[in-house]
Every structure is written in C-alpha cells, then in structure tokens.
Amino acid sequence: MNDAQGTATPVAGPSAAGAPEAPPRGATTRGGATAFLRRHWAITALLLVGAAIRALVVYAYRPAFWYPDSTAYIRASEHLSPTTSHGANLIGYPVFLRVLGLTNSVAVVTVVQHLLALALVVVAYVFLRRRGPAGLARRAGVGAHRARRPPDHP
User: Fold this and answer.
1) How buried is 68 (Cβ within 10 angstroms: 0-12 exposed, 13-18 middle, 19+ buried)?
2) Which site in 6, 58, 121, 128 is 20 to 30 Å from 52, CA atoms measured?
3) Are the beta carbons of 92 and 39 closer than 8 angstroms?
4) What's the whole-model pTM score?
C-alpha cells in the first residue's frame, strides 16, 4: 500500500517468496489471555486452588512452620562450607537460604518456597503437554514395532 506521500508501506501477508509469514514464536494467535485461559482451564483452576490453599497455610503458620531441622539449615546458611553442610544435604539449600536471608524475613523464604512449588506444577504441565504420555511412549519405542494383523476375511 502507499501512504499519503506515495511511498510503499509494508503490509502483513505473504512474504516475497509468496508463502505466508509465520507468527513470531510465542505469539498468541487466538485471542490473547482469555483464549489461553479457556484452553488451559483445568490447570488454571488447579493453580488457583493450590495458591489459595498455600496462602491459607502461609497465613496460619506465620512467620513459618518450624521443623526440627530448620535451625540446622539456618546455621548451615550462616557458615557456608560443603564439609559442614548438615547431614546428607548438600550446600544448595543453605545457599538458597543465604540469598533469601538478605531480606531478614523467614516469611519471605516461606512465600518463595510456595511460589517455587506452584512454578514446578506449571513446568510439569508444560512438559506433559509437549511430550505427553504418547510422546514419551514414542521416544521410548513403545508400540513402534507392532505387527499389523491382516483383516479377517470370511
């Protein structure tokens, strides 16, 4: 198309080779967030219920639910060393606590752990949607070599 000055302006449509252009990766083509929520209503509902339950737990156990080994993890985060990490646990969790310790709030640690659990649900959902039981079976070779039986003829 030409604009008011007579210069050509790009128009969405076929590319120079005549093939239609693909939308950019990650772009939604069917109505945005509402369409996304309609397509993934079950996981959205489960996440909302899970978040509500987790919010109730955070509220009920303020600032945090303290397990018997919680003190050992806090101490391990204060003196980071792979040789002094407590029990069979490695240094990863004490480092996580050290980073979140910058906030000086055990409640922040609790909330971040709950958010990470919800994020893990999303990651598992995405993995299963992309790979799924059928995709995993194909990759494992299950059912790939089934012999076809000829149809029964009377």
Assistant:
1) exposed
2) 128
3) no
4) 0.58
